[in-house]
Amino acid sequence: MTRFRPCIDLHCGQVKQIVGGTLSTEASNLKTNYVSKLPSSHYAQLYKDSALSGAHVIMLGPGNETAAQEALSAWPGALQLGGGINEANAKQWIEKGAEKVIVTSYLFPDATFSMNHLSAVLHELKQDRSKLVIDLSCRRQGAKWFVAMNKWQTLTNMELDEKSIKLLEPLCSELLIHAADNEGLQRGIDEELVEKLGQWCTLPVTYAGGGKTIDDLEKVKQLSNGRVDLTIGSALDIFGGQGVKFEDCIEWNKQHRSG
Q: Which residues does 95 contact at the CB level (< 8 Å), separation at least 6?
């Protein structure tokens, strides 16, 4: 059943909410919705106290390792960690307290999918796919979606569709999908993509991008037949937003737990 999944987005060592499509190497291009004065550990503890499992911590670029570790230390074995994950550090982050690691760009050298790279990560995790989340965050191209890497700035050769989902599901335990064109804009979710994910995915899948009201949880539930979870970021009051109260998200999960 659809549930709210929280997030901790880290940029330059701080918890931030960013317009996803503006992430690049040019600092002047970045559009930020919110910069928290509180450490990452505050949010991890908040999610722990609220029994909000399955949260993802994303390191958006370099300089976030310390903040990531602080979050993991606040709730060991319960947070998923992504951003710069590869075969060299996947095992280390699990040992440092991540429940699961989330891998994206490493799977796409030169923007081309590499099964060898995915196999290398799984090898380091001792073939334990329960420790791996694959991030297939995407950008829309006409009537299709293509996986985007490099802070969502580079389109890969992988179309996000039923074929690619079926290829990857046996090799991980969850999927994470940021709709990068919607991320941080609070203009509504990509309803067509959510509906498709509900049809294509058999593993747990979390959608993020454009959530703006508590009603979006019900909308995702209806569109996906309860198969897709929703992350709400910039619209949340704990991130300076005005569209969604964090307490309402907690209540939603409590009411729908039986499902």
A: none
- Percent residues over pLDDT 70 in the chain: 92
DSSP string spanning the chain?
A: ---B--EEEEETTEEEEE-GGG-SS-GGG--EEEE-SS-HHHHHHHHHHTT--S-EEEE-SSS-HHHHHHHHHHSTTSEEEESS--TTTHHHHHHTTEEEEEE-GGG-GGGS--HHHHHHHHHHTTT-GGGEEEE--EEEETTEEEEEETTTTEEEEEE-SHHHHHHHGGG-SEEEEEBTTTTTT-S---HHHHHHHHHH--S-EEEES---STHHHHHHHHHHTT-EEEE--TTBGGGT-SSB-HHHHHHHHHHTTT-
* DSSP bridge partners of 139: 146
Characterize 177-215 residue by residue with b for buried, 16 or more Cβ atoms within 10 angstroms of its Cβ, and e for exposed: bbbbbbbbbbeebbeebbbbbbebbebbbbbbbbbbebe
pLDDT in tens, 20-40: 555 554 555 567 777 899 999
